[in-house]
Amino acid sequence: MSEELSAPETAAQPAETFDPTTAEVETIMADLSLVKEEIGKVVFGQERTIELVLCAILSGGHALLIGAPGLAKTRLIDALGTVLGLGAGRVQFTPDLMPSDILGSEILEQTEDGKRSFRFVPGPVFTSLLLADEINRASPRTQSALLQAMAEHHVTVAGHRHDLPEPFHVLATQNPIEQQGTYPLPEAQLDRFLLKVDVDYPDEETERRILVETTSGSDTELQKILSAEKLIEIQGLVRRLPVGTQIVDRILKLIRDARPEQSENESVRKQVLWGPSPRAGQALMLACRARALLRGRLAPSVEDIEALAEPALGHRMALRFDPTGEAPTLPKLIETLATRKR
User: Fold this and answer.
1) Nearest to 280 by CA among 339, 342, 192, 198
2) Strand, coil or helix: what is 234?
3) In whole angstroms, what is the distance from residue 18 CA to residue 111 CA?
4) Is the CB of residue 135 less than 8 Å from the CB of residue 149?
């Protein structure tokens, strides 16, 4: 095997931009396999959820986890912080939460000689992995305060810019079955989440394992596999993975097919209220690269597009009201578009 990896002839990027050695890439793939295995020690039966969240992080983005209480969403995020070697923080979102409770604030201090000055006290957002628990329970004003941090990786307090640590990722949770006292996330903020991850109930065998292993009184010690510096290197590699022109064309066709103004699909033109923005295509492209690397491949495939289409597009689209109740659901419509033969 050659000591240098080169991009295939059909790559959309120049081959010279992809230059890590084979040994380096194989080491990264082995480390990522260990990351998934380590997290699986405490989060049972959620392999798809783990993979999608890792795809978002390796792509340098944020993830929104939607699921009923008790499905190990918080446990997963805690495990990620340990295994990835990242500093982690948590904010429990409530209706009375203020922007300063997340970003931080300036306080007035007085020295012994009577001089006064303001000092910035950082909030919990100044961490590498922020758990925004039940994000839709905070007011729109507080949600907007987090939007700048997610989009620009810095915050502005009292006119002064404060940079966030790198890497920086927001993993937010949302409870889909209790909407009393919540504020739906605006489309602008939903668009900032690279992937939306639906966390499902475990199967019977997995739930049996949960019952036995989580009530025995013994805690599993997780090992640190990566570090912040190593994660940044892997994120750089993800962006340099070659993507064949056929895959690029397929992603482009999927994004444009999902827009009612541009689609050739009659169901989309009739049922979709608004379609995905170009950022959705960027998210899908990055996530496909990350999934390929997680699965031991050096370039994304059609399988990656089909697996990631709904997590990347589902929160960036909306359907028209259907009084008949016979129209397909949004996930089903996206699946049909993603799997359709070209």
Assistant:
1) 192
2) helix
3) 55
4) no
Q: Is the pLDDT of residue 5 over 50?
A: no
Q: Decide which of 3.90.420.10, 3.40.50.300, 3.50.50.60, 1.20.1290.10 is the CATH code for 20-216+225-240.
A: 3.40.50.300
The answer for residues whose C-beta is within 8 angstroms of residue 99's C-beta and 6 or more apart is 141, 142, 144, 145
**Would you say 300 and 294 are in contact if contact means Cβ atoms under 8 Å apart?**
no
3-state secondary structure of 250: helix
Coil, helix or strand at residue 335 = helix
Residue 63's nearest CA partner among 77, 75, 43 is 77
Label the pairing between strands 104-110 and 116-122: antiparallel
Strand order across the beta sheet in which 129-133 lies: 88-92, 129-133, 169-174, 62-66, 193-198
* Cα angle, residue 107 at apex, residues 102 and 110 outer, rounded to 5°: 160
- DSSP string for 47-100: HHHHHHHHHHHHTT-EEEEE--TTSSHHHHHHHHHHHHT--EEEEE--TT--HH
pLDDT tens column, 217-270: 777 889 999 999 999 999 999 999 999 999 999 999 999 999 999 888 888 898
The answer to whether the CB of 193 falls within 8 A of the CB of 53 is no
Give percent helix, percent strand, percent coil of the chain, each to the nearest 5. Answer: 45, 15, 40
Distance (Å, rounded) from C-alpha 31 to C-alpha 53? Answer: 16
Superfamily of domain 1-18+242-342: Magnesium chelatase subunit I, C-Terminal domain (1.10.8.80)
